[in-house]
Every structure is written in C-alpha cells, then in structure tokens.
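Quick review question:
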C-alpha cells in the first residue's frame, strides 16, 4: 500500500522517519559527554556540531598541486571523527554477527554497549563477545568486551577503550543509557520487543522486522547478492532453514540436537573431525559429524537445548584460522 492510499497516517509517518535515516549524518546534533552521566546526554552546545551537505564534497581548491589534502579535507575528517566518537550504540545480542557489528563500530570510534541473556547460545564462541558473560571478558580481533554488573560501570569500561556487556534480558539498558542507536542483533528471526521509539535510529539484522514499522532499517543477513543491503522500507528475506553451501555442503555440515536436553560436548571449536564421528551428546543421544572438516562452531557444554536446534557446524575447508576470525558474512553486515 502506498502512502496516501488509505494507509494509517501513523504508518506513513513511520516510513518517512525511516527514510530520513539515510540523511541522518548530514545534519547531526552531536551529544556532548562533558560532565555527562550515562543515561542523560547533556548537549552543552545547543547548536551542536552541524554538518552541511556541501561540506561533504572536496573541491579542487582544497587540494594542493602535489595532490595532498588541504585544510578543508582535514577539517572534514576532524568533524567526522568528533561525530563518531560521540555516538553511543547499544547492541542487543552478542553472537558472532552482533560481534562483527560491534567490532566494526568500535574501531570506527563509536561507543558500544552490548546486552545479552544470562545463558547465551552463541555457536561460534571463539568470535562471539557473548563469551564474556561466562568468562568475565572476551577479546575478538583486539576488541575486548568486559562483563559489568551495574550500568554505572559502563562509563569506566568505555573510557578504557573496551565494550561493556550486561545480562539484560528485559532491555532495561535502553531506557537507562538512552543511546543514539539501537541495533537488534539477536538473530531470533522475530521481533522480541524492539521498537521504533527505542532510539533515534533503530536497526535490526535479518528477518522478523519491517523497516518503517518496528525499526528504521533492516540489514539483509541472507548470504548471496543482497547480503549486507540496508532496507529502509520492507523486510529482509525470510529464513529458509537451509544453510549456505560451503564447497558443496549445506545441511550436512550443521550439527543439530537429536532431542531435547543438556549438551555435553566431546570436541571443541578448532578440532578436526571425520564424517560419522561423535562430537557431542544431547541427553545421552550422540551427535555425529555429517562431513569431515574442522569444527567452526559448537554451543557451550551444559546448555539446555530444544530438539533440532543448531548446536554447531563443521567447515569442510579445514582452515583452523577461520575459527578465530570474524567471518566474511559478519564483516559484510558490520
């Protein structure tokens, strides 16, 4: 239904707001952290830092005859660095895709906070900051997440150059920190409580969300031509339940729980296994590798799972280094 053709005015307004996100950074009121207590962004300069459209172009006059950027280019860079350094992003979830987003934003200079459930089910634990919930801290590609018990600890952790992560199943951190951006990276395949009103920009990864209705933008997570595409009106592709092929293997490389119960792992991420080898048990029933290769993902031992839940995967390429670095998919999304 097109806007103005009978649809509710509120829906049209939401879609218009979602489209405005595309030009968000062209007119950004920078929050000042001077004397700031997290959860109450005090904009000490009412005008903030404005970035007019025309400053994005670098004219010939701003480049020296030798081709070196001039003062105007340096000013543009300084302004953007200031903007990025003052954006607070809250990410819901800390699995491997969420971690790819967090690492990218953190390295861009943004302030990142993550929230998780009490027992995260991250499959690729070696590249998931969710492991900090169990271990106290976790580092992925030189970016460290530290579990914090109190929201008040966030400022100190961020000040040290790290990412605070909290157990927060109700999303209470959103109201406390009032971030500029909220990213739902739970990959639950459905909306479990994310709303347009959560932040100035609300983004979701993958299916289960509609851009312009419950979030401002959706990022495509399906492998293929559209991976990483930002959707401002509509939904991401629906989950097919069929994993992408790696060297001709799809469903065969996935490890699934044969029944409901507690997982007991026999092999770890990075281990080489043979087809038919038992790699784990669920409630006493064996989980066998469908192909030979290296275990790239394995859920944490002791976790309670449902029947047919994905608990791991085997990579037929057999490259151990892939187990300890952010995947190409996560980088495309982040």
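Suggested answer, residue by residue:
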């Amino acid at each position: 239904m097109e806007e103005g053709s009978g649809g509710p005015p509120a829906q049209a307004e939401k879609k218009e707001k979602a489209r405005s996100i595309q030009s968000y950074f062209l007119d950004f009121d920078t929050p000042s952290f001077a004397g700031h207590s997290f959860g109450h962004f005090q904009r000490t300069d009412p005008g903030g830092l404005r970035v007019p459209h025309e400053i994005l172009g670098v004219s010939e006059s701003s480049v020296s005859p030798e081709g070196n950027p001039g003062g105007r280019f340096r000013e543009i860079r300084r302004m953007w660095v200031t903007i990025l350094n003052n954006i607070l992003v809250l990410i819901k979830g800390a699995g491997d895709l969420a971690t790819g987003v967090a690492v990218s934003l953190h390295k861009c200079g943004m302030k990142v906070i993550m929230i998780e459930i009490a027992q995260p089910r991250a499959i690729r634990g070696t590249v998931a900051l969710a492991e900090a919930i169990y271990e106290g801290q976790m580092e992925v590609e030189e970016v460290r997440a530290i579990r914090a018990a109190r929201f008040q600890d966030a400022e100190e952790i961020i000040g040290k150059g790290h990412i605070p992560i909290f157990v927060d199943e109700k999303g209470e951190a959103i109201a406390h920190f009032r971030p500029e951006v909220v990213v739902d990276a739970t990959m639950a395949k459905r909306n479990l409580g994310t709303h347009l009103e959560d932040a100035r920009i609300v983004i979701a990864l993958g299916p289960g969300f509609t851009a312009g209705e419950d979030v401002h933008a959706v990022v495509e997570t399906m492998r293929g031509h559209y991976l990483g595409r930002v959707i401002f009106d509509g939904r991401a592709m629906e989950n097919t339940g069929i994993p992408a092929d790696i060297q001709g293997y799809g469903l065969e490389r996935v490890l699934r729980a044969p029944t409901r119960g507690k997982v007991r792992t026999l092999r770890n991420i990075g281990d080489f296994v043979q087809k038919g080898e038992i790699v784990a048990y669920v409630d006493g029933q064996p989980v066998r590798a469908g192909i030979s290769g290296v275990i790239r993902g394995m859920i944490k031992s002791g976790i309670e799972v449902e029947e047919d839940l994905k608990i791991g995967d085997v990579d037929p390429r057999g490259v151990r280094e892939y187990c300890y670095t952010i995947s190409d998919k996560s980088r495309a999304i982040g």
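Why it works: The first helix runs from residue 9 to 20. Residues 251-316 form a domain with the OB fold (Dihydrolipoamide Acetyltransferase, E2P) fold (CATH 2.40.50.100).
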